[in-house]
Amino acid sequence: MITEEMLETREILEGIASGLDTVLNGPARGTDRKFAFVLLIAPFSDETTRDEKGRVNYISNAERDDIQLLLKEMVERWEEPGAVLDVPPTSSGSTSERTH
Description:
The protein is 38% helix and 14% strand. It is an alpha+beta fold. The protein has 2 domains: 1-62, no CATH class; 64-100, no CATH class. It has a two-stranded antiparallel sheet with strand order 1-2. It has a two-stranded antiparallel ribbon with strand order 3-4.
């Protein structure tokens, strides 16, 4: 059963995705785009939201199979002992790395 909250969440995600795709790729569409993205959102868990544990919503501008592979590969890298994790540039434009 689709709830009002689910519809609101989908509307929010679609708005964010549209804006993010425009920021990342400008007017390019389809295979002309430079960047793929996936956005995951989940409720914060505490004693009052225990029934929602594990619920995650996502939206992407890429094919589901491609994103599934991307996420699996990312988790594998995270789980490697001593892995160096990618960290986005800071506001000053420099980059940094952290180990796990």
